[in-house]
Amino acid sequence: MRATFRNLVDTLNVAAFVRDRHDHAISVLRWALILLPMAALVGTLCAAFLLSLDTVTRLRFASPWLLYLLPVGGFVVGLLYHLTGRSWRAATT
Length: 93
What we know:
Strand content: under 5%
Oligomer: single chain
Shape: elongated
Structural class: mainly alpha
């Protein structure tokens, strides 16, 4: 028998393989339609985070005096937790 593409298709029975795997192909397509927009969104959010991190890092090196405001920011965050937050026991049990 001569080796041709048609003989290969007949030997492998591609049509039956595709018929048998139709449900699987539909499932893969559905998952792809769900995952591709999600991947694009996550990638965009990661890029935005890295861009903001780079901006803040440049700002910090351009203005070294901002480092001295960190204790003030920590105090404000602690005060907000104290005034609006629950106790740590309620949060851990």
